[in-house]
Amino acid sequence: MAQLIDGKQLSNQVLQEVASEVEQLRAEHDVVPTLAVVLVGEDPASQVYVRNKVKRAKETGMGSIEHRLGTATTQGDLNQLIDQLNNDPQVHGILVQLPLPSHLDEEQVIAAINPAKDVDGFHPVNVGALAAGQASLVPCTPQGCMIMLRQVHPDLSGKNAVVVGRSNIVGKPMAALLLQANCTVTIAHSRTKDIESLCRNADIVIAAAGRMELINADWIRPGATVIDVGINAIEVDGKRKLVGDVAFDSVSEIAGAITPVPGGVGPMTIACLLLNTTRAARRQLA
Ligand code: NDP
């Protein structure tokens, strides 16, 4: 049976580190690291994510500001708010919850955020810095995956890693971080041929396709480490349930280590968002 990489427990450790950094910034510099969260529209999943982020931020002693805007918000209104937050010295991190309603241009919104306050790590300046191996604000989900991987592999050097998914928010930054850690990285996507055998050769498989239980035991080499980023909502007996991109029951019998869904990558993502906010606050001091 695979070792379970417990995201809840690990995220609590990260949140404790965040809380002590918040305390240090307050004691040494009279600064309260503050995260501004912007939510546009009524998407129920986004409302839950925002609520959890704000709740956790408060638990660490961090400041948090919520801006809830109606679905009819224009690009101009949103840009104006971002401008205001960019120029507010009390705000250290800005997060615009995605997806935005379809009439709004996400790329434009991301580009409008000051890269120094871009705690999601999606701004082209931060994306470029990560690709070039320079210090940057790193996207939260892949950052959380790296912390989880290091529990099992303190030294990732020379490992064969396959990342299933090539999105800008998960797959691509994940591959960049693994490469920085000296893994040999393959990125697979919906057009990849014989993805199963690529995965079967991997020491590490990161599943970020958004396809329920795509990856089963036949895809996994005995002893491999499997990180499941996927979050897929299904209904079982009229109740909503979350499942990952990995068929947990069968894969956990063959893998060496595995993350659960829920309770895996999800909590780590929020913890890394708050970690990024303290990092942004410290850099802004400098
Ligand atoms: P996207 O839909 O943006 O990207 C999915 C990627 O998976 C694409 O690159 C796509 O390929 C690839 N893909 C889709 N189907 C297959 C397939 N059958 N075989 C191989 N590759 C495939 O999703 P995200 O990256 O935003 O998110 C991925 C998953 O992670 C989702 O379930 C999402 O909910 C979850 N997620 C979880 C987070 C957490 O905190 N735990 C945070 C963010 C996301 P192509 O490019 O060719 O279309």
UniProtKB/TrEMBL annotation:
UniProt-listed SUPFAM superfamilies: Aminoacid dehydrogenase-like, N-terminal domain, NAD(P)-binding Rossmann-fold domains
Please name the InterPro entries in this protein's record. Aminoacid_DH-like_N_sf, NAD(P)-bd_dom_sf, THF_DH/CycHdrlase, THF_DH/CycHdrlase_cat_dom, THF_DH/CycHdrlase_CS, THF_DH/CycHdrlase_NAD-bd_dom
Q: Does the keyword Hydrolase apply?
A: yes
Q: What residue ranges carry the coiled-coil annotation?
A: none
Listed GO biological process terms: L-histidine biosynthetic process; methionine biosynthetic process; purine nucleotide biosynthetic process; tetrahydrofolate interconversion
Q: What does the record give as its pathway?
A: One-carbon metabolism; tetrahydrofolate interconversion
* This protein's GO CC annotations: cytosol
Which EC number(s) are documented for this chain? 1.5.1.5, 3.5.4.9
- Subunit organization: Homodimer.
HAMAP family registered for this protein in UniProt: THF_DHG_CYH (MF_01576)
- The protein in question is named Bifunctional protein FolD
- Taxonomy-wise, where does this protein's organism fall, top ranks first? Bacteria, Pseudomonadati, Pseudomonadota, Gammaproteobacteria, Oceanospirillales
Q: What is the primary gene name for this protein?
A: folD
